[in-house]
Structure formats: C-alpha cells, structure tokens
Design brief:
Family: Belongs to the UDP-glycosyltransferase family.
CATH topology of the largest domain: Rossmann fold
EC number: 2.4.1.-
Number of domains: 2
Strand content: 5-15%
CATH class of the largest domain: Alpha Beta
Strand order of the largest sheet: 3-4-2-1-5-6-7-8
Organism: Prunus mume
Protein name: Glycosyltransferase
Helix content: 40-55%
Structural class: alpha/beta
Radius of gyration: 21 Å
Keywords: Glycosyltransferase, Transferase
Bound molecules: uridine-5'-diphosphate
Length: 447
C-alpha cells in the first residue's frame, strides 16, 4: 500500500487543511501519516489514529523559539525535522511501510531536497489562495518590486489590485520583513517539486488557476472542509480533529439554539491576529450598537482588551467565548453573517457554508482574500478603515447591516448560496478537486 507522509507547519490554519487532505488521500486507499509538531505542554502529544490517518506527534520544547522571529522559528523547525523525519521514514521502511511521497507545507522548501536525497517524491502544499500565490510568485520573479513603486497593480490572472488589496508583507513591507522573505521563498524550488497542491478549487479562482497552469501543473484539491459539510462521502468526518485551543462547544450551541434563524453575527479573527486595544473597543461598541445578536471569539490572550463590563452589558444579545467549533457555528441556522479576518480557511469555510461575510482583514494574505470576498465572489462587504487605521463602531454597524439587511444583503446571500453549491461540486465524485486527487494517486501508483 502506498504510504504518504504529510508535514504541515504547526499552526491551526496549516494543520486543518493538510489533515483534511490526508483524510481524502486515505479515503482513496493510501496509507497516510500526518506529522504534528507540538511545542506546547498543554497539548497532549497525539499518538493515535484519528479517522484513517495515523498521527505522529513530535514534541519539541520551543519556549525560546516562540518568542523569536519567523525566520528563526522556521530554522528551528527545520533543525528538528531534518533530523526527526529521516528517522521516522527509516522506521516506517523497517516495519514494512516505506514512504513514497512527502507532502510538505510550501514554507518548508528544504523538505523537497530532503525527500529527493532519500529517493522519495516531494509535493508542495500551499495553504493560501492561488491569487495570493501569484502575487508572491511575481515578487519572487522580480516582476513586482517591493516596496511598491506605484498602484494599482495588474498581474496576469488577477483583477486590478490597489496596494491595500495586496498581502500586508507587500503593501507594508516594513511591518514583518522576515515574513516577506519566507512567503516569497516558497517559490524558490517549486519547479523541482513532483506535485504542487493548492487548497482552492478551480472555478473559485478560474483565471489565476489557468495562468498558474501555464507555468506549473498545479492541482487544486479544496476546499478542505470535513466531508460532512460538503460531499458527505467520508464517514464520520465531522470536524478537523485537531484544536490548538479548547472550544466552548456546548455553551455556543446552546446559546445559538435560543436565537432565531439568521439573527446572529459570528465574529472571529482566527488563531493568530491580535487587535489593538482601540480597535477592540470600537469593535465591541459596534457590536453593541448593531441590531443583531453576536457570538464573538476572543482568545484568552486577548480578553483583557475588552471594555470593562462589556459582557455583562451585552449579555441579552451577545456571547463571548475563547474558542468555538467554527464549522458547527457557521452551519447553524441562527448565524446570518460572519465578521472575519479573512484567514484563508475561514474564508473557504464561510463560502462553503453559504454564510455572507463582513471582511475585516488584519495582515498577511487576508487583505487579498477580503478583496475577492467583496469584489470577485460578491459574498460580503469589506470594512473601511479611517485615517488612524481604525474601523470605527459606526462602520462596523453599517457593514453588518449591509450584509444582513436590504437588497444588497439579499444579493450577497444568493451569491453565498451559489458558492456553497460550487464548493460541494468541486470535492464530490468527479468534481475538479476530486479528479486532481485521483490523478495524484494514479500517478503515484505508476511511479
Ligand atoms: N477556528 C476554530 N474556532 C475558532 C476560530 C477559528 O475552529 O474559534 C478555526 C477555523 O475554523 C479555521 C482556523 O481555525 O479552520 C483558522 O484558520 P484561518 O486560516 O482562517 O486563520 P488563521 O488562524 O490562520 O489566521
């Protein structure tokens, strides 16, 4: 039986799609081992078989690494994995399960050299959109120079992009200089990869996917939501199966059950974004002013930024939790809108659930995702920031109302429902993403 090793970065937004992809490969009959690097003693190392995928957990203390910059953290990961992965590969070989291919997070370009050195195929997995990939690729090739000289920008396969539609590392390169090098570096050896996977689907990014295919034979394999939210072919595949934070599931669901259909705005900024105190206050006041109910995920590390007594003052219409089962929330009929930072997973999850969005991007690829949400897929409204870079309470109230009320709200809802069907079609039997996975499996069998 063919055996694949899947290695994501140890971040929620990278583990989720690569774990789901692993499940899809296992569904096609492959043996799959997913490597999870855990650096937090609060999380039990997993040594178990979740669904059809075997999980190998590598524990590595990183107190120091957590505090240092992205480049150093990547180096830390590389140091650990370049020792531990060959050990794991040779152990699997010795017990009769040799690895045929390593699917590595596109950020780990060194993994391709490692795979080739071991005589194994290598596949790069991109966890952001093809549009964002195209922007980074153009920077890598020197077509787009950073800092930007002028805007707007026209790149092949993409709509006209204003500077603020570009990923923050390009729009504001001073903000996180080490990240720019990392995201652009993903293209350094892409032409040597045996396969290139993208968590997207063909019709979602038709033009840019077509352009990319003139360069590399990329395979879109998304959206990578659990099967129960899409084609329902994978039995019991109801959630991602791995949470960096503990969700307040019962509290959320019970609370949603008490609300009428389409009356709740779900608010979350994902696993990493940190809002400034002023922004947090404006958001809190905007939610308080808005006519709708709200369910707001405020991670434990952010909770002290809430205005004092906010939860007591809004308990009639609002619930604040530290983490939630996002897919279940989006699928709940009480939810009528998702106020999101537009992380790529959250964007795909909202699209696939037919939930309209208020896009409030914070950094990295979220700015470009927000542009597509509003102008290309027309499934939401993007907030405007004021001269101080703040989204005011009035703006928050206005955007929620636009998405949840009136003619524009209805049109956005119609578009959202259409994308939901197209997302399902992509992963269903014979859909574009399903075919791409089939082709990969067939090619591996022939190797
Ligand atoms: N998520 C979740 N519960 C929450 C907030 C987020 O399960 O309360 C999940 C969400 O479903 C998504 C992931 O965390 O799969 C966040 O990934 P995304 O790419 O949207 O954002 P990131 O965290 O990488 O910024």
């Amino acid at each position: 039986m063919l055996h694949i090793l899947v290695v994501p970065l140890p971040l929620q937004g990278h583990i989720n799609p690569m774990f789901q992809f692993s499940k899809r490969l296992a569904f096609k009959g492959l043996r799959v081992t997913l490597v999870i690097i855990s650096s937090d003693t609060h999380h039990e190392p997993i040594e178990t078989q979740l669904s059809l995928v075997k999980i190998e957990s590598i524990y590595a203390a990183s107190e120091e690494a957590d505090k240092i910059n992205a480049e150093k953290k990547m180096q830390w990961l590389q140091n650990i994995l370049s020792k531990r992965l060959p050990e794991l590969i040779s152990k699997q070989e010795s017990i009769g399960y040799p690895i045929s291919c390593i699917v590595y997070d596109s950020a780990m370009t060194w993994a391709l050299d490692m795979a080739k050195g071991l005589g194994i195929a290598g596949a790069s997995f991109f966890t952001h959109s093809c549009a964002v990939g195209t922007v980074y690729c153009n920077v890598h090739q020197g077509v787009l120079s950073v800092p930007l000289k002028e805007g707007p920008i026209l790149l092949p396969g993409l709509p006209l992009l204003e500077p603020h539609d570009l990923p923050s590392f390009i729009y504001d390169p001073g903000s996180y200089p080490s990240f720019l090098k990392l995201v652009v570096g993903r293209f350094s050896n892409i032409t040597d990869a045996d396969w290139i996977f993208w968590n997207s689907f063909d019709c979602l990014e038709q033009e840019v996917v077509s352009w990319m295919r003139t360069r590399w034979p990329i395979k879109t394999i998304g959206p990578t939501l659990p099967s129960m939210y899409l084609d329902k072919r994978l039995e019991d595949d109801r959630d991602y199966g791995f949470n960096l934070f503990t969700p307040n599931t019962d509290t959320c669901i019970k609370w949603l059950e008490s609300k009428d259909t389409g009356t709740v705005v779900y608010v979350s900024f994902g696993s990493m974004a940190n809002l400034g105190e002023k922004q947090m206050e404006e958001l809190a006041l905007g939610l308080k002013r808005s006519k709708t109910n709200f369910l707001w995920v405020v991670r434990e590390s952010e909770i002290q930024k809430l205005p004092s007594n906010f939860e007591e003052q809004t308990s009639e219409k609002g619930l604040v939790v530290n983490w939630c089962p996002q897919l279940q929330i989006l699928a709940h009929e009480a939810v009528g809108c998702f106020m999101t930072h537009c992380g790529w997973n959250s964007t795909l999850e909202a699209l696939s659930s037919g939930v309209p969005m208020v896009a409030m991007p914070q950094w990295t690829d979220q700015l470009t995702n927000a542009k597509f949400v509003e102008d290309e897929w027309k499934v939401g409204v993007r907030v405007k920031v004021d001269q101080m870079g703040i989204v005011t309470k009035e703006e928050i109230e206005r955007c929620i109302a636009q998405v949840m009320e009136g003619e524009r709200g209805k049109e956005i809802k119609r578009n959202s429902m259409r994308w939901r069907e197209l997302a399902k079609e992509a992963v269903a039997e014979g859909g574009s993403s399903d075919k791409n996975i089939e082709e990969f499996v067939a090619a591996l069998l022939c190797k």
